[in-house]
Amino acid sequence: MITQYFRLSVVLVVLFLFVGCAKETKQVVHLHGETMGTTYNVKYVIDERGQIDGLKAALDKRLVEINKLMSTYDPTSELSRFNQNRFTTPVPLSADTTTVVKEALRLGKLSHGVLDITVGPLVNLWGFGPNKRPEIVPNEAQIDAVRDYVGLDKLALSSAGLRKLHPMVYVDLSTIAKGYGVDELAAIMEENGLENYLVEIGGEMRVKGERGNGEDWLIAIEKPVSTERAVEKIVSVGTNAIATSGDYRNYYEMDGKRYSHLIDPRTGSPITHNLVSVTVVHPSSMTADGLATAFNVMGWDEAISLAEKEELAVFLIRRTDDGFEEYASPRFNATVTVKN
Ligand code: ADP
Ligand code: MG
Questions:
Q1: What CATH code is carried by the domain that includes residue 84?
Q2: Which residue has the higher pLDDT, 57 or 24?
Q3: Is residue 293 classed exposed, middle or buried when 0-12, 13-18 and 19+ CB atoms within 10 A define those classes?
Q4: What is the domain count for the chain?
Q5: Terminus of the chain with fewer CB atoms < 10 Å: N or C?
Q6: pLDDT digits over 280-311, tens only?
Q7: Residue 115 included in any domain
Q8: CA distance to 40, 60, 195, per residue, from 305 (Å)
Q9: 261 close to ligand 1 (CB < 6 Angstrom)
């Protein structure tokens, strides 16, 4: 029997706060809507031009385009059609999808195979994909059978397109696509000459400039608890993206054991370690998004050594017997201002 504690929806991991201020404040426009199975929020400080006509329509149009390419929930998307075919010859893909696949493969290499966009069949087997979740935990034989076509060595990207080295290979960009969406919305803000904005999709966020009162945008990193929404830290990140990967909401419990929605490709099973929240700050939201997941899969020790070796801005929280323990990398301390 499955003890129900499962939420499919992507949670807003990073909340943003508004703090009243005595200084003169400029008007902030808030645009919002739905995309990628979650919500998006865009804010910008208006300049002498006032509100930008047609901005929301432009943002929505771009999000629809990205979904039409990379959604695994839409069976007609470019990525779904790639997944349905059984060709082992290169398949040409759009420039957008190629950009995301390329970055995912780069981060896959950087993380020694831990971030793996071919892990989808294992995700489905364990019940966290678009398919129904299983009534029982898969056995070794089922896991091994699926692992025949999981692994970054089963994909090859070249100028001719993306090639499967096994006909059953399935590519899932969900761990990095939201971040790409944020970067693309930020590009539209830039095209419109906006200097002070915040863009967020399902908790992936990118900010530039100030929030209307001359001060930095404030971002709250949540406490890694499922019982309430509390703040661990309030930070400002300059002009950067911030991504948080945490397992404290998206998991299910069976026979008293907790199963994460993140799979360690090295074992073929969900991660089980005590690292509960990973935050990454980086200029690119796509990179921050992918890295947050990669560090989460890696676990505390490996995450710390990679963050220091690659000089990445990373903040970790792990559960210990005496409560939570935090780690901030040197680059995180140099990039981020903690407000509380
Ligand atoms: P989080 O915000 O917790 O990092 P994301 O929403 O970014 O989670 O990504 C989670 C999704 O990524 C999972 O639902 C699954 O589809 C996929 N996934 C799971 N394990 C991996 C992995 N090792 N590498 C890449 N993608 C993964
Ligand atoms: Mg992620």
A1: 1.10.3980.10
A2: 57
A3: buried
A4: 1
A5: N
A6: 999 999 999 999 999 999 999 999 999 999 99
A7: yes
A8: 33, 39, 35
A9: yes
